Amino acid sequence: MPKHNRITNVLKSDAIGSQVLIKGWVRTKRGNKNVAFIAVNDGSTINNIQVVADVAQFDEETLRRITTGACIAVSGTLVASQGKEQAVEIQAEKITILGDADADTFPLQKKAHTLEFLREIAHLRPRTNTFGAIFRIRHALAFAIHKYFNNNGFYYLHTPIITASDAEGAGQMFRVTTLDMENPPRTPEGTIDYSEDFFGRSTNLTVSGQLEGELGAMGLGLIYTFGPTFRAENSNTTRHLAEFWMIEPEMAFYDIYDNMDLAEDFIKYLIRYVLENCADDMKFLDERFLKEEQAKKADERSEMGLIERLQFVLDNQFERITYTEAIDILLSSNHHKKGKFQFPVQWGIDLQSEHERYLVEKHFKKPVIITGYPKEIKAFYMKQNPDGKTVAAMDVLFPGIGEIIGGSQREENLEKLTQRMKEMHVPEDVLWWYLDTRKFGTCEHSGFGLGFERMMLFITGMGNIRDVIPFPRTPKNAEF
Ligand code: 4AD
Ligand code: MG
């Protein structure tokens, strides 16, 4: 292991007078003809360390090359800081330039940059305060997810990324092929002959690990997946990515109520974990959020601060209502009576984001879990309710986000499941292995999928999903 000190540890150290060696990137340099103050960051914390250099002790050329963005190594003595900003700083004895950053062409200058601009230089945005905080929190959140499930007896199951089935039946998949696109093999009927393809069949990137997750749960009892999922829907919104990460627990012997309890407990654990373990980064994002909100129009402004909102979610039970109750609330709202919804409201509709947001942000003012959706608007695998019209689906809706979790109890009855697959034109032959679980030792079971980036949006208070994943994939965008 290299022998330099990480800045986060140096800043916490009280070993005044000790020798330290730090390596990092210059954020700013200021000073006068006698002394230079250099703020250095190495990514270990949002806080910079201040390096103090007596100009007389360094050659002019070295000092000139210490510009914003340059990478330097500094050795010196840890001293108590005169400034109010920090407790300690480094009195530099030796400074080595590890990598220059030409001041005229380095895109990240001291001033504040817009998020749009930073998206265009996604290769450099990890060097900013905002993205440093976001990616550290992203790490902590991923770690907390594994920790939660491990603590609760779940096994991490690695489900495939390349699949031959369409779990959600939505048909919005990316094809995976090694066929020559210029000159593909043809069947006698003239269609592309996928039996000649790498896997001997047509394959795609997975939209969900659920179906394989169910296979795992039918032997291991409690499993979860956590991996990338892909959707080729042309949704250019602030909530959709073409490549996103999803966490999908699947539990044998859980009904829809157990499923809801788990989802709520899980989300609250994650929020608590980040508040407890990422305090500096959350404080920074809380201040950032406040500034963003102040710039908005009064009626669009969040009533709560970021941390306050997270605390509020921890302190309150999620509201649980049925789809039918949700429709009744929407129909009797003044909002509806005044014709303020853009999309029509009636039993049977797929709730639009404006409806979800009304329920969560205006009506209940807290997270809401909706169950019992019409079977027509949900996937084939969901448990059919005795009313013949609805399924035991559950969507968890969050303020400012909309749907953060989608899940259900699963239909474990073979006849009912195959009947529904026929009605929805889901091919039984491709899913013979899925149906086998219903033939051999079937049981009540449930699961859900949490969108990792949507959870990140809620925790960080960022407004665009492209800003909570290092290298976003969206329509017409796969640059980095
Ligand atoms: O509701 P969805 O489509 O559910 C499933 O895929 C189920 N198989 C999950 C399960 O029961 N195991 O997706 C689950 C969640 C959504 O609630 C949302 O948070 C997120 O995944 N999500 C997306 N996030 C970013 N970009 C997209 N295009 C997303 N589509 C879904
Ligand atoms: Mg959904």
Structure description:
The protein is an alpha+beta fold and 480 residues long. The chain folds into 2 domains: 7-106, OB fold (Dihydrolipoamide Acetyltransferase, E2P); 127-172 and 207-467, 2-Layer Sandwich (BirA Bifunctional Protein, domain 2), CATH 3.30.930.10. The protein has 14 helices and 16 strands. Strands 6-10-11-16-15-14-13-12 form an 8-stranded mixed β-sheet. Strands 1-2-3-5-4 form a 5-stranded mixed beta barrel. A hairpin with a 3-residue loop joins β1 (19-31) and β2 (35-41). It is globular, with a radius of gyration of 27 Å. The structure holds 4-amino-1,4-dioxobutan-2-aminium adenosine-5'-monophosphate and magnesium ion (MG).
Key features of this structure:
BirA Bifunctional Protein, domain 2; OB fold (Dihydrolipoamide Acetyltransferase, E2P); 23% strand; alpha+beta; binds magnesium ion; 16 strands; eight-stranded mixed beta sheet; 480 residues; single chain; five-stranded mixed barrel
What's a concise summary of this model?
The protein is α+β, with helices and mostly antiparallel strands.
Low-confidence stretches: none
Reported CATH architecture of the largest domain? 2-Layer Sandwich
Strand content: 15-25%
Q: What is the CATH level 1 assignment of the largest domain?
A: Alpha Beta
Q: Rg to the nearest angstrom?
A: 27 Å
CATH topology of the largest domain: BirA Bifunctional Protein, domain 2
Total domain modules: 2
Secondary structure category: alpha+beta
SSE sequence, one letter per element: HEEEHEEHHEEEEHEEHHHEHHHEEEHHEH
At the fourth level of CATH, the homologous superfamily of the largest domain is Bira Bifunctional Protein, Domain 2
Strand order of the largest sheet: 6-10-11-16-15-14-13-12
* Contiguous helical run count: 14
Tell me about the biggest sheet? 8 strands, mixed
Kindly state the percentage of residues in helix.
25-40%
> Overall 3D geometry?
globular
Overall pLDDT score: 96
Named once each, the bound ligands are: 4-amino-1,4-dioxobutan-2-aminium adenosine-5'-monophosphate, magnesium ion
Task: Write down how many β-strands occur, each being a DSSP E stretch of 2 or more residues.
Answer: 16
> Termini, distance in Å?
29 Å
